[in-house]
Amino acid sequence: MADPASADPDVDVATPRRGETWFRSHLDGRLLADLRWLGNQYRILVFRLPERVAVADECCTEVLDLARLRADRLVQETFVHDCDSSGCAPWVQYSEA
């Protein structure tokens, strides 16, 4: 059965849909920021690794770029560091990892 969203020519298939997830590691992999599309907004989860302890959990905008910025700010509020250093990776979609 065809995906109804992709079958409709008026629907932008690039628009995020449920199940879309992104991640970014910080502090040489000691923190992981995770974005999950919930259908109307992104959920931000921040984990301390390797224990996988959740240190932050919030929901925010439906705009991916703004959700990434909010996730980075949330990480900064919890663990202040220089995000522009080599210790932080770029955002990657889970399907690309």
Distance between the termini: 27 Å
Strand order, main sheet: write it out.
4-3-2-1-5
Total number of β-strand segments? Answer: 5
Helix-strand makeup class = alpha+beta
Number of domains: 1
**Average pLDDT number:** 81
**How would you sum up the global shape?**
globular
Fraction in helix: 10-25%
Strand content: 25-35%
Integer-rounded radius of gyration: 15 Å
Q: Helical region count?
A: 2
Main beta-sheet strand count, sense and barrel state: 5 strands, antiparallel
**What are the low-pLDDT stretches, counting only 5+ consecutive residues below 50?**
1-13
Order of helices and strands: HEEEEHE
Give a structural overview.
20% of the residues lie in helices and 31% in strands. The chain has 97 residues and is of the alpha+beta class. It has one domain (16-96). Strands 4-3-2-1-5 form a five-stranded antiparallel β-sheet, covered by helices on one side. Strand 3 (42-48) and strand 4 form a beta hairpin. The longest helix is centred in the C-terminal third of the chain and has 15 residues, at 64-78. It is globular and about 30 Å long. The chain starts with a helix and ends with a strand.
